[in-house]
Amino acid sequence: MRRPLGTSLFAAVLLAAVLPATPASAETRTSGYIVLLADGVAASSVSSVSADHGTTVDHVYSSALRGYSGRMTATAAARLARDPRVALVQPDGVATATAQTTPTGVDRVDAELSATARIDGADQRVAVDVAVIDTGVDLDHPDLNVHTAGAKNCSSGRSADDGNGHGTHVAGTIGALDNGDGVVGVAPGARIWPVRVLNNQGSGSFSDIICGIDYVTAHADEIEVANMSLGGSGSDSACGTNRDAMHEAICRSVAAGVTYVVAAGNSAADSATFVPAAYDEVITVSALADFNGQPGGGAAATCRADVDDTFADFSNHGADVDLIAPGVCVLSTWKGGGYNTISGTSMASPHVAGGAALYRATHPTATPGTVKSALQAAATGTWNTGTDPDATHEPLLDVASF
């Protein structure tokens, strides 16, 4: 879903008339033109053709075309167009390279204002490591800084390469490169560790997920942040009670220094009945419907029906939710080197994971609890909190100060 080229070359038009002369107009003002020679006229004739009409020569074309480009007045261009050696005289045009898109979610959380993110198209990379515990990540995506040597497959398939697309989408929101192409993430260039715990259909067992958490914990001296845009039925418990193996794994991983960011869930229900969203040790994220990257509402819906600047109609809610972030119609990277727009709290969570990555990049000794507090302290109330299904109005992620 890359942006198309901007203004391409103008359509071919023969110049047959000259506008009435005005001061500093057709008689004196020069512009760029492209000249195509007639059939049978060799490219070696460019010099004589241009000299006969007093035009300059910039490029000579002899393979794809026979002709040249140069600057001339409109009068000279009209005269040249009548030369039997010339098939076409065409005004030059402007083309732009494929542009990088700043997704509306990245805009809404003010990542472009972060001194650490430094979003300017120069491909400066945030020095931080983030594990994406998901369907894997496209290991060869040109818009991601994938740490392929750190990839782990706890699911089916032969590798941690993404056969679904979901994990690659999450990875792009976290850290798509600021390289002037495709999209840009909240923490551009963050090193992405693909930890595959879900299959190509986007499902997996708790045991597979624990395998992924175990792997991340083994690399806690390298990985600062882990994103888990996944979940299943369950409830909270206290660390050390050994009532829930996945919770115990996260408790110990957090104790090892890894900040976990997780999706609240998409059932429009209380997140207290979903894990890992219910765990106190993680940062649980609900979804905001935002269609233009700006506060205030009023923007038209795009990929799905919802209301701008409101609590997403599918998002889980409740006291376990710590932050809200854009999660509707989010553009990001996709498997096969592509891009896609999808919705879910799975899309909201990686915005916060990117924010956590920015904070850890400049606060390398911060504990997960400190990271969580910093994110909440920097967050804002600039969304329509009256649409929240409960009385706990979680603040909106804002990383401008990071």
Automatic annotation (TrEMBL):
Domain Peptidase S8/S53: 128-380
Keywords: Hydrolase, Metal-binding, Protease, Serine protease, Signal
Catalytic residue positions: D134, H166, S346
Signal peptide residues on this chain, from the entry's feature table: 1-26
Name of the protein described by the UniProt record: S8 family peptidase
The species this protein was found in: Saccharothrix hoggarensis
Domain Inhibitor I9: residue ranges: 47-93
Family: Belongs to the peptidase S8 family.
UniProt-listed Pfam families: Inhibitor_I9 (PF05922), Peptidase_S8 (PF00082)
Superkingdom assignment: Bacteria
